[in-house]
Amino acid sequence: MDSSRLITVAIHTYDKAHQLKNILECEGVKVVLQNVNLSSPVVSSGVRVRIQESDLPLALRVIENIEIFAPSALKECPEDGAVIMVPVDFSDYSVRACNIAFHIAQIHKAKIHLLHTYMDPIMTQGAALQLSDTLTFDDGFDAATQIQEDRTIRQIAEHRLRTFEQSLKEKIKDGIIPPVKFTSEISEGLPEEVIDDYALRVHPLLIVMGTRGADVKNRELVGSVTAEVLDSCRTIIFTVPESTKFKSLNDLDKVVFFASSQQEDILALDALYRLFPELPLEVTLVGLPQKKTIGKSEPSLKRLVEYCKENYPAYTFKTASLTLTNPIEDFKKIESETPVDLIVVPNKKKNIFARLFNPTLAHKLLFHSDIPMMSIPV
User: Fold this and answer.
1) 127 class by beta-carbon count within 10 Å (0-12 exposed, 13-18 middle, 19+ buried)
2) Of 286, 295, 281, which is closest to residue 332 (Cα–Cα)?
3) What confidence score (pLDDT) does residue 214 get?
4) What is the pLDDT of residue 286?
5) Nearest to 120 by CA among 94, 144, 152, 142
6) SS3 17
7) Which single residue of 14, 44, 311, 346 could bond 268 by disulfide (Cβ 3.0 to 4.6 Å)?
8) CA quadruple 51, 57, 59, 64: dihedral sign
9) Could you give the maximum distance between any two Cα atoms of the chain, in Å?
10) Is 87 left (phi over 0), alpha (psi -120 to 50) or beta?
């Protein structure tokens, strides 16, 4: 590593510095520790965590995570490489999501993990519970019957998953999808909670989720699993609508990136570039106007374009702008004028009340567009 290009991103005690080093290196960032007392390293203080300047955006995405030193984050790098998770329900849009996930996994030498969830009948039939005159729930519950129903539902799920896996193996054999290793898992519970739990435990490179058409999603605004995962999960989410036109990454060309002229733009752009470093993407940076920066967004966008041209040479960049009145309608206008293959949205974390009354842009676009979208947590 060229020491002349090293920059200090944090100063910690030895233990914290070593933990941060492990976390960053799990994300692919090379780290050097300086000012370590070699005779008694554990008592060192003021240890500098230094990285290459080019890795700064990725490192910032990790460091600015407030849960960075939580027990779930302090893990060793996985021995078998990166993981891409694909929640499946055996629908056509699950199949499309798998196809895209396998192509992305090939680029990063990652493996695929298929995750299928099912619900307990008691949970899905909760509306049938009756409150009797004695103020106790009386639903005719029979333990033996319940156990048998659970076993039957799981057996059906296992059979469908085996069939789905066999279809993937046939596609690999026929050369339709790349020969990527994959594993599978069946879990009982609410799909969004199971997905979030897996993401916290494994820290996948990406979650690829199939979605239905915008007209159907609009009729199912309440209870959308993908929307819940977009709002709560701090992993990059790639949504693949059932009507998407491209079948492989070679069809991915024109990208619309929603920029807020803030530091988060750099972090999200860097994440996009690391996922697709060799694709010659044409990226349209769409400025999201901020009330505080009206009149300043255009110069900020130009500076962002200059930064991008210098740091992401495989891509070409241009700009467009939205109004404060209706970003969704503005986007549809941009979409009608220029073909769009992928939407990229930096997605800030919001608490549950903020999400309820002011949904994120990624959440809104999910229900109003049939274009694949990448939501990048920042």
Assistant:
1) exposed
2) 286
3) 52
4) 87
5) 152
6) helix
7) 346
8) positive
9) 79
10) beta
